[in-house]
Amino acid sequence: MQIDKQQIIEFLKNRGDQQQAQQAEGELPDQVDTDQHADLLNRFGINPQELL
Predict the structure, then answer these.
(1) Half-sphere exposure of residue 13: CA atoms within 13 angstroms, side-chain side
(2) Residue 16 region by backbone torsions, left for phi larger than 0, else alpha for psi between -120 and 50, else beta
(3) Where are the alpha helices (DSSP H) in the chain?
(4) Cα-Cα-Cα-Cα dihedral sign, residues 15, 17, 18, 20
(5) Residue 48 confidence (pLDDT)
(6) What is the largest CA-CA distance in the chain?
Protein backbone atom coordinates (compact mmCIF):
# COMPACT_ATOMS: atom_id res chain seq x y z
CA MET A 1 0.00 0.00 0.00
CA GLN A 2 1.26 3.49 -0.85
CA ILE A 3 0.96 6.25 1.76
CA ASP A 4 1.88 9.88 1.23
CA LYS A 5 4.79 11.03 3.40
CA GLN A 6 2.82 14.08 4.54
CA GLN A 7 0.10 11.83 5.96
CA ILE A 8 2.70 10.04 8.06
CA ILE A 9 4.24 13.32 9.23
CA GLU A 10 0.81 14.65 10.25
CA PHE A 11 0.12 11.40 12.10
CA LEU A 12 3.35 11.78 14.07
CA LYS A 13 2.64 15.44 14.86
CA ASN A 14 -0.90 14.64 15.98
CA ARG A 15 0.39 12.14 18.50
CA GLY A 16 2.89 14.69 19.81
CA ASP A 17 6.08 13.33 18.23
CA GLN A 18 7.47 16.54 16.75
CA GLN A 19 11.06 15.29 16.74
CA GLN A 20 10.14 12.07 14.94
CA ALA A 21 8.03 14.06 12.48
CA GLN A 22 11.08 16.16 11.58
CA GLN A 23 13.22 13.04 11.25
CA ALA A 24 10.59 11.36 9.05
CA GLU A 25 10.50 14.44 6.81
CA GLY A 26 14.15 13.89 5.97
CA GLU A 27 14.22 10.11 5.81
CA LEU A 28 10.99 8.97 4.17
CA PRO A 29 10.41 9.01 0.42
CA ASP A 30 7.48 11.09 -0.90
CA GLN A 31 5.43 7.91 -1.38
CA VAL A 32 5.93 5.27 1.29
CA ASP A 33 5.25 1.65 0.40
CA THR A 34 4.14 -0.06 3.61
CA ASP A 35 5.79 -3.35 2.62
CA GLN A 36 9.00 -1.99 1.14
CA HIS A 37 9.52 0.61 3.90
CA ALA A 38 8.21 -1.41 6.86
CA ASP A 39 11.55 -1.06 8.66
CA LEU A 40 11.39 2.74 8.45
CA LEU A 41 7.80 2.80 9.68
CA ASN A 42 8.75 0.54 12.60
CA ARG A 43 11.59 2.91 13.53
CA PHE A 44 9.01 5.65 13.92
CA GLY A 45 6.68 3.35 15.87
CA ILE A 46 4.04 3.35 13.15
CA ASN A 47 1.74 0.46 12.38
CA PRO A 48 0.47 1.03 8.81
CA GLN A 49 -3.04 0.04 9.91
CA GLU A 50 -3.11 3.15 12.13
CA LEU A 51 -2.84 5.32 9.03
CA LEU A 52 -6.01 4.00 7.38
Answers:
(1) 10
(2) left
(3) 5-14, 18-27, 38-43
(4) negative
(5) 87
(6) 26
* 48 neighbors 34 (Cβ within 8 angstroms): yes
- Rounded to whole angstroms, the Cα distance separating 21 from 1 reads 20
- Span 8-52, pLDDT tens digits: 999 999 999 999 999 999 999 999 999 999 999 999 999 988 887
Q: What is the pTM of this model?
A: 0.88
Three-state DSSP class for residue 6: helix
Residues 12, 13, 14, CA angle at the centre, nearest 5°?
Answer: 90
